[in-house]
Amino acid sequence: MSFSLVTLVMTVSQRRVLWVCLCTMALVYGQMSASVQNKSSLAHTDPLNLDPLVKDAYQHLYQLDYDGAISRFEVVLTIHPQDPIAFDYLQMATIMRELYHQDLLDTTYYAHDSFLTSKRNVPVSTETRQRIEYLTEHAISIADRQIQSNPQDANAYFARGYARGMHAAFITLVDHSYVTAARQGLESRNDSEHVLRIDADYVDAKMAIGIQQFAVASLPRILRIMVGIAGLNGSRERGLALLREAAAHGTVTSVESRTVLSLFLRHDARYAEALVVQRGLAEQFPRNYLFRLEEANLIKDEGKGLQAIAVYKQVLTDARKPGYFVDPRVQMAWFGLADTERGQNEVAAAANDYMEAARQPKCSDWLRRRAELNAGEMFDLLHRRSEAIEQYKQAAAGGGDQSQADAARMYLKIPYQGR
Fold first, then answer.
1. What number of other Cβ atoms are within 10 A of residue 362's Cβ?
2. Residue ranges per domain, the chain?
3. Average pLDDT in the 252-278 region?
4. How many CA atoms are closer than 13 Å to the CA of 110, on its beta-carbon side?
5. What pLDDT was estimated at residue 1?
6. C-alpha distances in angstroms, 128 versus 96, 98, 132, 309?
């Protein structure tokens, strides 16, 4: 199915189609912080999850030190070349690093329907894409062989479902392959259901099922038919319950499931509940830049603009401390701060901070165009037309999200007057 066909269905029920994207995004956003913690369930997880080398690698991942995590996971794979979950670790960390560098891990991008109509091009290098495909294929093929040899191998089913879920998230965010991703997500759910039939106490498997339960219940029938899941049932409440169970008792998906819950609650405008979850994550991992940023995003969405501004500024202050965060993508915080100032009618401050976001040397071309467009709008509201025109010219340049360029070209002709 092409993106244009999904767009056609979106006109029927745009909000619901967004859940295909949100659910795969939730999986990838959550994968960055898997934690091994529930000692009572040690027998219900792959033993490799408890290996000190794996734990050490995850500690680097907790701090968004992707290079440090990847180098350690490479060692794990060298020692365990026939364990599919060893491939999963590397696949996940490689995908997370790429998405982070593309400014695709700020959930504000997924909290609005404009995500679906974005014309954004995500330039992933051939080397990185080939590496992700290699790791995905090997994880699945090794798991397949283990399942053929032992149909009761819960760890193999879990590893295969993990690889499929991460790959679904990658092609959703990078390639906009929504229908293909939805099918892979269903396969991930099926693998997780196999795990629970083998071992009802394998709580980590409940995360993928919870995501799919919530997703399917939120999709219109026409999209279920397109994806090929017309007969599959779902339940939003059942999905949330499974996610909460994995969050409370999972061995390697506890933090992931909390991250998913926060994202779903945010999209449903249940900001107070989402903040409880997100603050717990930020307190547990205070040097995880994304968790801190998401706390500010939620406060903004809750309508507490002045409080959100203070939190964004604190994140930026911490980012200036040497070594406090690993490679903080501060353009995301500047953009969130500017958006919040805009909502508080602090137009001049918003214009300056949108420009600050665009000036960051590691800012993706896509986010830079968005920042330039918004800065131009603010300058128009300030009746500083020459500065607005300069920003629109930059936003209208080649590359980036062409929907932003189209808007910039329009405002070059007719000044932005607010909406």
1. 12
2. 3-268, 329-419
3. 87
4. 32
5. 29
6. 12, 8, 6, 36
